[in-house]
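TEACHING EXERCISE
Course module: macromolecular assemblies
Task: Read the component lines below, then compare them to the predicted structure of the full complex.
Student: A.B.
Group: 4
Components provided:
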Amino acid sequence: MKKLGLSILFAAICISRSWAGDEPPTIESNKALIDLVQSHADYVWTLVAAALVFFMQAGFAMVETGFTRAKNAINIMMKNLMDFSLGSLVYWAIGFGLMFGATSTGWFGTSGFFLSDFEVGGDPWVLAFWMFQVVFCATAATIVSGAMAERTKFSGYLIYSAVVSAIIYPIFGSWAWGSLFKGEGWLEGLGFIDFAGSTVVHSVGGWAALAGAVVLGPRMGKYTKDGRIKPILGHNMPLAALGVFILWLGWFGFNPGSTTAANKDIAMIFVNTNLAAAAGTFLAMITSWAKFGKPEVGMSLNGALAGLVAITAGCANVTPQSAIIIGAAAGIIVVLAVLFFDKIKVDDPVGAISVHGVCGAWGTLAAGIFNIGGTSAKIIGVQLLGISACFLWVFPVAFLVFKLIDKTIGLRVSPEEEMEGLDLAEHGGNAYPDFEVSSYGGIGSAGGPGSPSAAGDPIGQFKPAQQT
Amino acid sequence: MKKLGLSILFAAICISRSWAGDEPPTIESNKALIDLVQSHADYVWTLVAAALVFFMQAGFAMVETGFTRAKNAINIMMKNLMDFSLGSLVYWAIGFGLMFGATSTGWFGTSGFFLSDFEVGGDPWVLAFWMFQVVFCATAATIVSGAMAERTKFSGYLIYSAVVSAIIYPIFGSWAWGSLFKGEGWLEGLGFIDFAGSTVVHSVGGWAALAGAVVLGPRMGKYTKDGRIKPILGHNMPLAALGVFILWLGWFGFNPGSTTAANKDIAMIFVNTNLAAAAGTFLAMITSWAKFGKPEVGMSLNGALAGLVAITAGCANVTPQSAIIIGAAAGIIVVLAVLFFDKIKVDDPVGAISVHGVCGAWGTLAAGIFNIGGTSAKIIGVQLLGISACFLWVFPVAFLVFKLIDKTIGLRVSPEEEMEGLDLAEHGGNAYPDFEVSSYGGIGSAGGPGSPSAAGDPIGQFKPAQQT
Amino acid sequence: MKKLGLSILFAAICISRSWAGDEPPTIESNKALIDLVQSHADYVWTLVAAALVFFMQAGFAMVETGFTRAKNAINIMMKNLMDFSLGSLVYWAIGFGLMFGATSTGWFGTSGFFLSDFEVGGDPWVLAFWMFQVVFCATAATIVSGAMAERTKFSGYLIYSAVVSAIIYPIFGSWAWGSLFKGEGWLEGLGFIDFAGSTVVHSVGGWAALAGAVVLGPRMGKYTKDGRIKPILGHNMPLAALGVFILWLGWFGFNPGSTTAANKDIAMIFVNTNLAAAAGTFLAMITSWAKFGKPEVGMSLNGALAGLVAITAGCANVTPQSAIIIGAAAGIIVVLAVLFFDKIKVDDPVGAISVHGVCGAWGTLAAGIFNIGGTSAKIIGVQLLGISACFLWVFPVAFLVFKLIDKTIGLRVSPEEEMEGLDLAEHGGNAYPDFEVSSYGGIGSAGGPGSPSAAGDPIGQFKPAQQT
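Instructor-supplied answer key:
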């Protein structure tokens, strides 16, 4: 199938339908071919970046499970798997069209649903662009799950995850980034700066997470009647750290990939992304050391994410020095924000609201303050408007959605199920049946290896209900 | 060494031996340079994709160990490490020549062994192409190990792994994809559609896995005399889920990288790959919910892989809508296939035969049915011929190889070793000596930290035999 | 924001300030545009490679924690996180200027600190290049931590990590690779071959690790008074294996990315990197089998790293056959070296000195021996000079730094803290509070889920001191 030598170059050339391989080259045909080769590089870069952003799903899954208890590990894997799977399908059907479809109002798009116009014979760039955007959508969706971990009903999760991916995220996205085709979003029209989504992706996820955590209420035992806060420790710090490293890697697709073009701008974006993350990590570690007397791992890991979230808006329009300042501030802010939300009894098991909501807002403001081309009251005003618009759109709508789910099929598991763990209650298995796990009722409480079972899934973790 | 400015462009230019930097450019020299720049992009894309596919080895390792017991975790790491290491060496020596060497018969290649013709002064594209192909070969080899987990002798594993990489996989590959140099495979000549290897890679691995599972027989205690099926639970669901995320990522190299060219085709391949995986995950989850009453994690994870395997053949020649249908069907099929193989007492600890063998066949058929350019009885016929040829080549030959190993050095460990776990029996250590593991004989049964030892490996897990 | 169609090509074109989109193309303008497109590919490749090398931090973290005890897992995550974070900041401030700044002496650079000259309006290539180099610097720094695991004070670690990244690594680097701007290093001037850093990165890390291990002394209980060597087993082999797979992946950025240009040379570098790793893995496995009677996992994993380290110097100037020989030898050498260092009572928990120091030296020598353009006594002499210069610079300086830290703030934790584990002593938490861990004092000894706490970090693992 694949012959050597000329065939390689030929393949590249033949892709260009505007240039016939047998005719002698002209200045104009060369120019068209150069444009084609550049566009090939744009495809490769945008799609490689999309692959890196996709991998962030694994990072979120590892962070979230690492920061929570062993008895809920399967549930967290299922949620991460499903927000991406279901999210991909609804973003294909609805979300992408709402976000990037042609718009005359600037408030939402009205074309491009089901990728229907572009499939056969259409511009393949739409497909590349969709691929890059679907992984962004999934990022916003998965942020929410962290704040709602360890107590949310799986069926309720599926519904709100679909709503976030189909409507809440795309609508705000269309204000700031739409459209791919015709028209522009009203925030974009005002000059709102959010290059890669501190607000569009992270604050959207963060404020939806806040709504979810408020509607759900705290996990059992987290806040005692006499006003004390009990720490509920995460069960696997190496996995959480691996998750953060994966997220940091993925952000090298998230931020520089947002150029959706292979050009020199990506260099500064890489450097800014890395320096902000480094400063965020270091400062969060120092802040935790000052606050608690010891350098704490959970805060340090969240510091990395805080720096990354904060630089996302301004990564293409601030200097590396500014990136360090933005990231360092985020590293301090995230520690204070986590303590604040705990003080007001908003139980966010992984710190998602602080990392994505608060630091997303900070980063968006900072993109205006440290703008490489200069700042102004107007720029700051637009940034504040965008930040506020995001909160005012996302929080109430998400709150309503969560309330609706709560009143109908239910948003929270029963106290018994929460005690038992969502893995067994919701998914019929345990994540670690070979190990002695304190939150289980003994080794292999869900039926260790070799326990008898008349039926059921021969592979996964499933144990028929009567066995457990 | 690396100077700024012009040196970068200069380096690129000087690589072109056909263009002298000091002469004024002409239309023709520009044209040659454009071709060169395009070919550079092809190298970068193909090799980045190869790196992503390589990473699938980590994914398979995590999935396989997650789905099996803690007492066999070292063994699974060793097998995954060795099928890639030994596989790379034998594919370099033998496999690549058999698969992509020049062929006059269309049944196997006869040149290119040891990369001998191409090394110095040869076309470097052969090396890039080899790199992309060796990671495919290793994928086929590692699939087999999953179905044979928890009971296979390590020395026997090394032998059959080498045979798969050197002979079984390359021979079939030459029929469908050969050659790189001169001539073409007989299946390719008939118009067989398998763009990235649903059959060539996945079914080959799956049918060899079936042969292995049949020759080995089930794990002890899996099927009781009174006809019941006992679930043997996997020991680490977060690792299994991480493995699936890694595999999904790697598939963004596997499928679009199979263009081996940086062009616009990769956009649709990315989208199709993602949508099929999403649909497979979601439908397998729904199917498990319907079958077992709860959404099950092992099935959902295998659903993702089923969707990915199924879209591999047709990723470049079906529409995104078709990709969703293909993936969704695979998500249902994989659940039914897993139950079927368990019913007929073929013990496949991770579901490899169902995922790779069955869904590989489905995907290959589907590539004919949903072919973007239209389908026909002839197309379907060729697809069915390719699917059948794969089974008829792989299953009997692999069966014979396994039988030969079984009769000579032995393919299966003793019952005592199987009980004790392959980690201790075959590799002299335990994967988790700090933890209480139910399948061990107590904490640190292999000698926890601090147990005395007169000699042996000071780093790894090795414990001298007399200590254990 | 992002419109379809022409806008993509337009963006690419407009980046070129030397070419005005509205004028008709000329041969010269086409030539300038071709150069621009090639340079875009160079940016993409170099930065994608940098992302892969960044991910090696996760690999090192997983290998190091897998090979050590559960009670020190948080500490190892914190060290890996901080050597990259703090290292990025000091390399930005000091290291990069010392390594790649303009040099008149050939002994160190004197410009480029704080990236100050290049930020606004400067050449963005400096930023791309910095990004690629900072991840190399972090690799050297993190190697050290492995050899000093399980007993080093965290504050002392932060200091020496900063010194390695700011001074020790950059100074040697400037001899072999400097400068980016003006002048060249004295070793480079002699023709020293170290394409991607067997000596510059790995031996630097390895010899600093040796100094650290010597100054620290062995872990408690490792060597008994009657001369026996006690194995101290690592706590998680799947994580260690995952780490090695991640490192192998990262090396596909490390070695071919060192071209810092998208060209055909990367093909052979990929192939050589892979074959050397494969041979190293296989031979280390065989060697461990011969030595211990069983194929051992720790040695096999280190064999992969040994092969990778060894091919790093010569990856661009040896044939694939030679790469196999170089890697195979490294696989044998690393097993013997690990046993040697243990015999002389240098306690290196992960084998970092053997893998990076010894195999780095071997690989650098081998790059001279197997040089594709022929070898000579002069070439070998220069290679030996470089190897020696590295040891003579790094070991004494690192030794002095460690001694200084030891005499001031202290380099080693107290025996009580070492017994208890660094996680609790230094970071106030445990990595696995849900599990029964033998090196803890019972389940959740640091306060399992639900234990009361009046204050402290609500997310991470932190437990106030009075609670533990």
